[in-house]
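Backbone description:
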Amino acid sequence: MTILKKLALDYNPTKLALDCLLFRKDLSKLKINSGSFDIPNYTGIGSDILFKTFDSEETFNIRTGLSAEEVVLVQTNTENLTDGGLDVLVDGTIVERIDKNEITTPRYYAPLTSLAVHANAFYDVNSLSNPATKVESITEGSGLPRCCVYKTDGTKMYVFESGADDIFQYSLSTPWDPSTSSYDSKSIAITNEANPFDMFFKPDGSRLFILGDQSPGTGVSEWELSTDWDISSATFTDKKSLGAFGTGATGLFFRPDGSEVFAHNVLNEYVVKYPLSTDWDISTAGSNITYTTLATFLGVNQGGLWFTPDGKMLLTISTTGVFKSVKLPVAWVVANHTDEQTGITADGTAYHSLKMDPDGKFFLIVDHGTDDEMVRYDANITGTAELSAQ
């Protein structure tokens, strides 16, 4: 692979589309629009073009040990990829997601240290394993598991059981694998929420939010943890009524910066967003924004919702186990959507509380019917994707 060195031009430090970039035949000059720049010590590409084919989840390091003066040309083709896509990582950070069925124009990247491409089936409801990959029955309490939430690194799991209205804490020896859970002998009773249906942690584990679904108690309660991620140290601090929401709240999600909170209604087919004037403070929730545009596609009986970290995809599961997703042209705005996808139907009787890992590989749900199980479905690549770099 050949690296182009010492380009004396003002370039975007992460990427630049190359559809306006031309080389002289002898490769001694680079021309961008009306300007041209010398390429010192460039010996030519020749056969030194790097090719890679992906047919399963894999991280491929195009180059490591780069300097700030080096750039790499990359082109990808996911036209033959049925499920999944590619992440481009510059210095370990995802700068671009390339979905299936797409041929990209060549781009150049200017990383400081490394450039890699990760093939995965991120957030693809059509690619899920069926039957479930990992399953674990919950037996600590006397009620039915209604919802769950995970620590951000996947090493802790928290399960709410209806009836006794307790939250139980578990450790996972393998992150995001509920079948490796062991009870931590830590729990807390929830007494101020009517029929809780979902939970959400602040990313540092210092606050827990619980969504109740019964009028007149419909709302989100906030709990402070004196010891991060230790459920036994939680104390109730506040509650915000969701007056416009009504009965039937089943899904809860906070924007990663804590500036907005989303809830889903199982009966009325809509998603509601509340802005928070103080991040992660439910008492500062403002007037709600109600989105009804997904009603026809999602329908009633949606049991949980989740967003991708960039806010450009919304995923749901119905109480009957049907996974669905839509793309959002404007991040965190559900008013308009594209690319409606209906995925597999989970095995079981009554599902709630969709949770996901940060990479979008694991879909984690609760079967609170007759099986009382924590369930995980895995996203898998189908087909092939191609990459070339120079």
User: Anything to note?
Assistant: DSSP finds one helix and 35 strands in the chain. Residues 4-120 form one domain.
